[in-house]
Amino acid sequence: MMKKLVKKLLFVAGILLAAGFSLTPFLWFVLSAFKNQAQITAIPPQWLSSFSMDSFYSAVARYGIIHYLLNSAIVAGSATMVTISLGTLAGYALARLPRQWGQIILMGILACAMFPQISIAGPIWRFLRFMGWLNTYQGLVLPYVALTLPLAVWILALFFREIPEELEASALVDGCTRLGSLMRVILPLSAPGLFTAAILTFIYAWNEFFLALLIMTDPARQTMPVGIALFQGEHTIPWGEIAAASFITTAPLILMVLLFQRRIVTGLSAGAIKG
Amino acid sequence: MASLGIKRISKRFGDVVALSKVDLDINEGEFCVLLGPSGCGKSTLLQIVAGLITQDEGSVLVNNKPVDHLSPRDRDVAMVFQNYALYPHMTVAQNLGFGLRMHGIHKDMILKRITETASLLGIENLLKRKPKELSGGQRQRVAMGRALVRRPKLFLLDEPLSNLDARLRINVRLELMRLHQQIQGTILYVTHDQIEAMTLGDKVVVMREGRIHQTDTPGTIYDYPSDTFVASFIGSPAMNLFKGNLIRAKKKLIFQSMDFSLNLQDIPPNFKDNTVEVGIRPEDIEVIHKPKNAFRAVVEMISNVGSEKYIHAHLGSTMLTVRATKEETFKPGETIHLVINPRKLHIFCKGKRI
Amino acid sequence: MIHRGQNFYLTLLVPVILVLLFFIAGPIGHSFFLSFHRIIIGLPQLKTPFVGLENYQELLNDPVAWHSFWITVVFVGTTTFFELLIGILLALLIHHRFPGRGALRACVLIPWAIPTVVSAQMWRFLFNDAYGVVNYAVFGTEITNYIPWLALPSTALLSIIVADIWKTSSFAALLILAGLQVIPEELYQAARVDGAVAWQRFCHITWPLIRPALLVALLFRTIDAFRVFDLAFVMTQGGPADATNVLQLYGYKKMFVEGWMGYGSAISVCIFIIVLVLAITYVRMVGQRLLEARV
Asked: Are C200 and B81 an interchain contact pair (Cβ–Cβ within 8 Å)?
């Protein structure tokens, strides 16, 4: 009996430690968004004594957080839509091609995700400058599509493999074209997979920094990560505003995690088992 | 070897009652089979005996000593799983020796036992292979070897033959019988296959929905099923059961169903009820070729299994199955004449035998 | 099964292959090309002469480059080790079925989900030399003892290592968790009946069977760690005195801040080759192990 109790206690302690480790630094930081400057810089550190939304107002009014948010939304949203569209086709194709071919091509596609951004940054920057696409939405969306396709294709291929080929066969026999069977029969069934891939793609595009920093130098077009990284105060570091901006930028992500954590875990770990 | 006592074991999972006050005694060296449809609780009972899950009520006794507080490790039982549960990253030899290693047995002794067991099961040449390189039948034997090598007090087998194809199953069944004779182990064996139960068991326990319906030797269960469930579960094709009323007329007792009536014998004298169910096995109905004193039934279908035929016929609105020799040449639509031996009737009231 | 559909499937692949060729394979190849030229952004009148291996020679003799390589290696080694360790612990924890498991999973996912720059600002805040919580936790209210973590060469690298471990342990945990979940419950039951206690079950069953997942996690983490940029850029800008001037940051500065695109391309080619070698080594190892462990 004692052993069981000790085991249980250790387990609970483990859980609390894990949750604390993950959440506490972040919560502490975000809490600063609701404090005034004096509280933020106080030693010993103070919990919330008076609730204040000043940082938020300042972040929006003085630093224009909203338009950064808009840029992020447009870029991430567009990139996700394009990636999922193209990725679905490719994922489906890879799921149906004979094993060896499919594996090789998939490996090749995955390899594209492994290289450091800097390897492609130079030439892409030159190309965009040549096309006049620096500081435009498409200038960022296109590279993002390329960066997010590998993971999206991988996840989608995995999901499509689970759908039995007999379904297309019966659709063909019933009179569909190949494309038709894909659109009408397979696609609706793979909605969970599409959704998972979309979430992961969106999160990646929303959080991306290196290329955004490089390609969007005009503050009017910059995305949130760039905005947050380059936050400058006049005299002191505007922690309140940075925290507020961080809160705003991470809120949708946290919501996604809370709602879709099962899917996210499935998508991310897909690589590990079927690898 | 040990005796096993299961005393009033109950277990529920949430709202589902898996086992309800199950009582069972197994003697040393006995081969006891738990038989029942899926979901009847037989596997749960096995896991409770092994110590893998804890019961809500009741006690497990080995050699008359309660073992409920012991972990599986300390109970000295060995288990063969339905999917074999062979350790995929270990060789056959390592799989066989794992339990012995865990109990701290000396290396030389382990080697000796492995070699003995392997030759007993005929798997000496497989010792260096990994499970994925083995066929289904070979894996099954390694799983059994893993149990045998431990020389435990008790063997627990959870549907060990269900993943084998039909022919292999028969061979392995014979091997199991031979092994049991050699080792004289106390065995608790779970299956949903009644043929396995009837051929292997010294004692068969028929279970359904967490309760034991009957515990007896295979012969007794077959000839004297205690209720309608056991009666229809055991025997293939299933026993014919008819519902009807009992009519007491002077010195005679008559069973009256919608379509026919039978003379009955041997009812316990104090039985007062009037609604009964009467059962007769297909092999106890005789097909005769003279119409005298016989029932007339119309053939619907014939199942030809090669060595014999089963005739599915209807008597009025009642369906019944009759066993016939393979020489009979009846066709659907023909009328046949049947005789039922009243001594072979099973009479049930409210489901239970009387 | 449907063999005649081959062409159809290949057609579906074309858009993706084109995009990847154009935006990834092409640029990587072009980087190689650029690295053999001298290109200075902002001074187009100097043209872009072919200079052969000159950029690489300069790189080999560049002490900053070597220093950058070295600290990146330290970063990769330390973070990968700790992240896998914490990852295993987290995975074992999450693997158990208990009420609130979903909540724990969500908690653990949050560091992964937030942008790296946000976590960088967060740690910048926590490591602050005047009012950072880390200083308070270590030294209490004796402000005079507070360490300027991000401004001291000796502690700056440590700070970004801590930040990375916080952010990515959960990702490692998820990959390992996937490996854990494939192990059939029956194996543990058999082991319990065979007499194995908890730590024995971990050593003999769990550990051998999660090795493939561990290797995959190792592969991803190592390659990812070589690409560290966001943390160094936001937290320390590569300083103090190049203490955190990791490879990609160094390459970025040379290429886009100082404008040496040719030289910067040489750096990017080197990073590419390092990552390529790593990837091939791992894939070889993982490939073998995966084949072994397939049940």
From this structure: no
Among C97, C194, C214, C294, the strongest candidate for a mutation testing the B interface, having the largest count of B CBs within 10 A, is: C194
Task: Please indicate, yes or no, whether residues B193 and B252 belong to a single structural domain of this protein.
Answer: no
CATH no. for residue B214? 3.40.50.300
If you ran DSSP here, which 8-state letter would residue B238 be given? P
| DSSP code at position C254 | I
What is the pTM (predicted TM-score) of this model?
0.80
A and C: number of Cβ contacts within 8 A:
287
- pLDDT on residue C4: 59
**Cα–Cα distance measured from residue C27 to residue C24, given in angstroms and rounded to the nearest whole number:** 5
State the distance between the two ends of chain C, measured CA to CA, in whole angstroms: 25
Cβ A271–C216 below 8 Å, yes or no? yes
Same domain for B178 and B274, yes or no, is no
pLDDT in tens, B25-40: 999 999 999 999 988 8
Contact: C191, B88; criterion CB under 8 Å: no
Q: Which chains touch B (3 or more CB pairs under 8 A)?
A: C
Closest listed residue to residue B158, CA positions, set B286, B8, B342, B35: B35
ipTM: 0.87
* Closest by Cβ to A114, choosing from C13, C17, C275: C275
Q: Are B100 and B165 within one domain?
A: yes
**Cβ-proximal residues to B67 (8 Å cutoff; 6+ apart), any chain:** B51, B60, B61, B74, B75
B86 shares its domain with B139: yes
Q: Mean per-residue pLDDT for B166-176?
A: 89
Q: Are B79 and C193 in contact (CB under 8 A)?
A: yes
Q: What is the pLDDT of residues A234-265, one digit of tens each?
A: 677 888 888 889 999 999 999 988 888 888 88
Indicate if B53 and B163 belong to the same structural domain: yes
Selection from C236, C38, C23 nearest residue C124 by Cα = C236
Average pLDDT over residues B40-60: 91
Which CATH number covers residue B340? 2.40.50.140
Any idea where the domains of chain C sit in the sequence? Answer: 64-259+267-293
Collapsed DSSP state (helix, strand, coil) of residue B215: strand
Share of residues in chain A with pLDDT > 70 (%): 96
CATH class of the domain defined by C64-259+267-293:
mainly alpha
C158 touching B, CB under 8 A? Answer: no
- Asked if residue B83 and residue B49 are part of one domain, the reply reads yes
Q: How far apart are CA C270 and CA C274, in angstroms?
A: 6
Ranges of chain C whose pLDDT falls below 70: 1-5, 286-295
Write out pLDDT tens, residues B121-136: 889 999 999 998 999 8
Q: Is the pLDDT of residue B96 over 50?
A: yes
Contact C24 A120 (CB under 8 A): yes
Same domain for B159 and B19: yes
* Structural domain total, chain B: 2
Instruction: Give the H or E element holding residue A254.
Output: helix A239-274
Q: Which of B218, B233, B248 is the last residue of a domain?
A: B233
Which domains are assigned to chain A?
A: 66-274 (1.10.3720.10)
Domain stops at, among B233, B250, B275: B233
B18 and B120 in a single domain? The answer is yes
Of C190, C195, C292, the CB nearest to B103: C195
Closest approach of chain A CAs to the CA of C255, in angstroms? 8
C202 — contact with chain B (CB < 8 Å)? no
Nearest chain C residue (CA) to B144: C190
Check C184 against B77: CB less than 8 A apart: no
Residue B42 belongs to domain spanning:
4-233
Look up residue C149 and give its amino acid.
Answer: W
**Partners of residue B146 in chain C, C-beta under 8 Å:** 190, 194
CB contact under 8 A, B87 and C187: yes
Whether C193 and B131 lie within 8 Å, measured CB to CB: no
User: C193 contacts in B (CB within 8 Å)?
Assistant: 50-52, 72-73, 77-79, 99, 156
DSSP B227: B
In this structure, of A227-236, B302-311, C77-86, the range with the lowest mean pLDDT score is A227-236
For B166-207, give the DSSP string. HHHHHHHHHHHHHHHHHH---EEEEES-HHHHHHH-SEEEEE
